[in-house]
Amino acid sequence: MESFEFVVMTVIQGKVLETVNIVSQALQRKDVDLLQATAMLGNATDTLAQLRGEFDGLKAHAQDLASSWGVHSLFKDRRARRTKRHFSELCEDQRLQDPGEHFRVAVFYANIDIVVAQLKNRFVGMSEVAQRFSFLLPRELLRATDKDLSESASALSGQYKDDLSAEFPFQILSLRNALRPTIKKIERGTIKDLAQTLLIENQSILPNKGLLLWDNFNGLWLSAKRASYDRERG
Question: What superkingdom heads the lineage (predicted)?
């Protein structure tokens, strides 16, 4: 703990963990909402990417912490690597002879870039699944045209042929148009809220369509759970 580099890395890692902790806890829940988790993950990734521009602030925090620990707030000098220089060429190595700049580029930037890349790559499958299901969010149902809604529903039923029937696009259109005022009440809700509202609370209003769609929604949840399982294994 006598190294200022160690103190700076402690501050940086603390900031990274603070950013991803909420998302990590959400993803560990058995009843996690895939779309909400994906949105949270996107926000966390953006926040970490923006962290790249906050090195000076993090270093200042580390300097205060180092002072309280009795650690000198200086980066260790490192032997500059000799490179062949060409006429009119900007030599980046010259700037990186400064220990602080070397740490910023070789350690800080590198660590942040690795974390951001891992988040994006680790959850690319989950993001793709969430995108496929996103048209079923109440707010998306309300603003989608019949054409767009039909195309999205057809694409989903084509993707999950074993779980969704060919009637799925027509059923979604019928229920959306018949129960638009009801869907409006849960505009900011989730797909689970939509299923609860359409298939349970309003089953008596549209019994036939509700029953027809019930198996399809069960298929949707099975598909989402399967995708979530695949995501965790990947």
Answer: Eukaryota
